[in-house]
Amino acid sequence: MDDSTAAEPVSLALTVNGRPCTVRIDPAATLVEVLRDELHLTGTKVGCDRGACSACTVWLDGEVVASCMTFALDARGKSVTTIEGLAQGDRLHPVQQAFVEHDAMQCGFCTPGMVMSCAHLVERNPDCTLDDVRGAIGGHLCRCGAYPNIFKATLAAATTLRQRKQGDSA
Amino acid sequence: MSASEDPREGRTILTGIVGDALQSATRSIPAGEPPELPPNSELRVIGKRVNRVDAVPKVTGQARYTFDVQLPGMLYGRIVSSTVPHARIKSIDTSAAQAHPGVRAVHILDRIVGIAQLRDPAAEANERYPLVRYHGQPIAAVAATSMRAAKAAAKLVKIEYERLPHVTSLEAAMQQDAPVVFPGPTEQAATAGGGGAAPGLPQEGNLRGPARGGLGGGPRGDVQQGFAQAERLLTREYRTQVQTHTPMETHGLVADWRDDELTLYASTQFVLSVRDEAADIFQLPKEKIRVISEFTGGGFGAKFGIGNYGSLAIHLSRKARAPVRVVLDRREEHVSVGNRPSSIQRVKLGAQRDGTLTALQVESYGTGGVAAGAGVGFCQSTMYPIPNLLTEHYDVFTDAGPCAAFRAPGQVQGIFALEQALDELAVELDVDPLALREKIDTNDTDDARARRVERRIGAERAGWSQRRPPAADPGPVKRGLGMAQSQWAYIVHGTTTCEVRIRGDGSVAAITGAQDIGTGTRTIMAQTVAEELGLQTEDVEARIGDSRYPAGPAAGGSRVTSSITPAARNAAYAAARDLAARVAPALEAKAEEIVFQDGRVFARGRPERGLTFKEAVRQASFDEIVQRADRREDYDGYRAKLGDLHISKQGIGGVQFAQIAVDTETGVVKVERIVAVHDCGRPINPKLIESQIYGGVIQGVSYALYEERHLDPGTGVQLNANIDQYKIVGSRETPDIDVHIIEQLGRQSSTDARGVAEPANVATAAAIANAFYNATGKRIRTLPMTPANVLAALRAADAADDEEPA
Question: Distance between CA B423 and CA B433 in Å, rounded?
């Protein structure tokens, strides 16, 4: 879009990682642009900018979305969780912890998106299978080829969550 | 004084493959080298499956890539690229772009880097602008206060072209009447990442060559005589496609030009190559340039130097007096910053009935677009002791983006042909392909010795003894098992230094300028230092990725671990001895009795009287111990030195086995399982090595089955310059991968460590192709194995072009 014909900035209120915030944005801005450039949450990456690599994956009201293909305005009033908001303080999410232990990364650039999709899977389905993991990250690209360890890590995290749930119900 | 001139001492040490056979060997070792390390089973930290030390920042989004650098007042740069494949630029009008709101600077490139250069600098000296030689060639760039403004302004740059005829395919460019890409002979110097082409070669039309030899050495013997001695001759043609690197983080650079210093944040495989190219182009003293690279989101060979995008970022920053970020979009990444060249390889192989190879002749053509250096590796010369050898390679220029080094440049293509030709020979001779390798893989090198063991281990893990004859499945889906061997050079980066600091509070840091492209540079350096000081990996802070630090190696050619760990160990050893001398009195011992183990410092045999490491430092009471060590030369020296690229006589390698299924009705190939058995000297961290081997195998599967750059011949436009249509292996296509790593103590350095990234990628496509034959009884000699190529291969008549020996 040409700046000279650009629409006036608009106000956007949303919740990011549990904190309400209001930003003035170009109405054409994508969610990832707002996260990275306005809120300086640079953990979310952009690999293709057309929804094909899923490096930009975040949660929007608990569902995974490609933030490069989501207008920021479509997040108005909603809750966004990014990679920066997944751990509870210093306590890593089980998927993050399992990614560390299973070396489910190399360069790490696709990792935030991978973690968001895998964490979403195990929270929804702690009984997930290898095929479920393959499906959950079927739209993600890791050029370093960390897939085998991502599979192992996600299944290990699912086991951790199952055990936690059993512990809670016991 | 260079390391080779140091006084030396003879040492008798155990060398060989752990678990196989270790023999005593005598090495002449520079005096003062630390004592040789025992096998990994006797070590505490080296050889252990330690977690990557920077894994937590990566999984929490805290790791800062160049892509993430945001500086106060930073502007966004957008490149203006050519919209035609071959043209003279008549005029460029930037006035509308300059006037666009938010624009702070516009710059037109006057020099294109990373492509072949005309040998005669006067040939195009009168051109006002660099000639356009491919669609997507960078021409200019705009810097603005927002990316949106920069993109809008970039579209306002008006370029008037005088079109010239173009050619984009290798075959078309080889024709006599083809449009000529360069009007005269060209040269292309190697970069720190390799690449480049032999100087001074003849060039006719678009064909530059022949290059005879290269890294592997020149021709040897007499191939005609060798073919005359052969009892079996095989003549085959193999073809491979253009593959693009596609790192997840595209190439990018943030330039911050100040009067006193130029700071560059670079997504790079070698911070010093960024510094040196910037110094050259901008005529700056090197010490005025600082290059920072905290994390690099993949490179695979393409991220060396500043590139045209980087040079544009610096120009724009200088003009705008503000930091400028230029990060390529995905199309620019595919088109303009590197690819693996294609190849056509005509292979003639002569052998005796017992498998002894008598001669090998390879005539090859490859196109790296507007760059030279599209060779097919050195395996033809270095892998097997073939007495008569002639390799002749021609680079074929086309109006396409430049090639760059890509994970085992040339060797991936070369091995695809060579290892399939050997599989074909085994069939012709009716011998087992493994038995044939056993017969011919006999060079006096570490990689050959390793492969002997790797074949045995791999065959067992892959179930080779149950391998069936070709086309054994009666139904349309046919399964098969194949194998191929890998080889890469064992490379050391000459100028490599590590600094170890023990601070007065007991904290320890290891520092080198090297960057990390994802292999785990921080981790292996920290492990090496921790081992020497009796600490744990996490006790050592590893600082990397800054040109102001002691010089580190380039992350290319599988040379980081081989280069940095000996320097790190020697620096840690010196720091430990320094600390031992200071702490000995408190322990009522001599300095040489002091050992560092499990976080404690004590006199040998008296652990009960020891101190913790921190207590020892406190008692020794000092501000800081600082020790630096350089990477010494390998004990037996090198086969060749090309600048800082030192190539050992020894190699690294592996053996891979592929189990695949071919649907003969649809042409769809599925790789079900890969067994990858590899050597990398002493494995420093098996967990990280496995990761790299997974990656190499997956890239190999991807290359074999899916990846191919498609250019439209009419316009020169890449049709699949994205991630959805440029097909790459994803989670669903990832096969089961069984990795096994052997421990080989080569005894050439103080850690015995060698690289692994490249050999992991070299053999995969050939192993899959050989499995394809075992599955179907048909050969597939053209990559990638798309349904169209597969169905064509299945329909082809059996090869009948073998000559009967005279």
Answer: 6
CA distance B345 to chain A (A): 28
d(CA B654, CA B268): 28
ipTM: 0.97
From the list B652, B680, B748, the residue with the least C-alpha distance to B447 is B652
Q: Are B633 and B3 in contact (CB under 8 A)?
A: yes
Q: What tokens does B479 get? A: 């399964």
Q: Is the pLDDT of residue B553 over 70?
A: yes
Closest approach of chain B CAs to the CA of A30, in angstroms? 12
Q: Residue B357 contacts by C-beta under 8 Å, 6 or more apart in sequence?
A: B349, B350, B351, B384, B385, B386, B387, B440
Q: Which of B415, B700, B744, B433 is nearest to B562 (CA)?
A: B744
Specify the pLDDT at position B206: 98
Question: Taking CB atoms and an 8 Å cutoff, what residues of chain B touch A67?
Answer: none
Q: Could you tell me whether strands B324-327 and B339-340 are parallel, antiparallel, or unpaired per DSSP bridges?
A: unpaired
SS3 content of chain A, % helix, strand, coil (to 5): 40, 15, 40
The number of CA neighbours under 13 Å toward the Cβ of B717 is 7
Residue B544 makes CB contacts below 8 A (sequence gap 6+) with: B511, B512, B513, B514, B515, B516, B521, B522, B525, B552
Smallest CA–CA distance from B736 into chain A, residue: A148
Do A83 and B70 lie within an 8 Å CB cutoff? Answer: no
In three-state secondary structure terms, B782 is: strand
Q: What is the Cα–Cα distance from B95 to B156, expressed in whole angstroms?
A: 8
Calpha distance B557→B561 (Å, rounded): 11
Tell me the pTM: 0.97
Q: What are the tens digits of pLDDT across the range A11-55? A: 999 999 999 999 999 999 999 999 999 999 999 999 999 999 999
Kindly state the percentage of chain B with pLDDT values over 90. 95
**Which positions in chain A touch B330 (Cβ < 8 Å)?**
47-50
CB atoms within 10 A of CB A20: 9
CA torsion, ordered B634, B640, B642, B646, to nearest 10 deg: -20
**Burial group, residue B447, by CB count within 10 angstroms (0-12, 13-18, 19+):** buried
Q: Is the peptide bond before B210 cis (omega within 30 degrees of 0)?
A: yes
Task: Please give the full DSSP string across B104-131, using - where no structure is assigned.
Answer: EEEEE-S---SS-EESSTTTTTT-SSPP
Residue B743 reports pLDDT greater than 80: yes
Count CB atoms within 10 A of the CB of residue B578: 18
Angle ∠(B228,B395,B179) on CA atoms, nearest 5? 125
- Look at strands A79-81 and A10-16 and give their pairing: parallel
What is residue B741's three-state secondary structure?
A: strand
- Cis amide linkage into residue B784, ω under 30° from 0: yes
Which pLDDT score, from 0 to 100, does residue B118 have? 96
Residue B742 to residue B744: CA distance in whole angstroms: 6
Angle (CA) B584 B624 B521, round 5°: 105
CA angle at residue A144 from A143 to A149, to 5 degrees?
Answer: 115
Query: At residue B704, what is the residue type?
Result: A
Chain B CB contacts of A36 below 8 Å: 68
User: What residue has token string 């009796």?
Assistant: B534
The tokens 């050989």 sit on which residue?
A: B770
The pLDDT tens digits of the residues spanning B554-610 come to 999 999 999 999 999 999 999 999 999 999 999 999 999 999 999 999 999 999 999
Q: Checking phi first, is residue B716 left (phi over 0); if not, alpha (psi -120 to 50) or beta? A: left
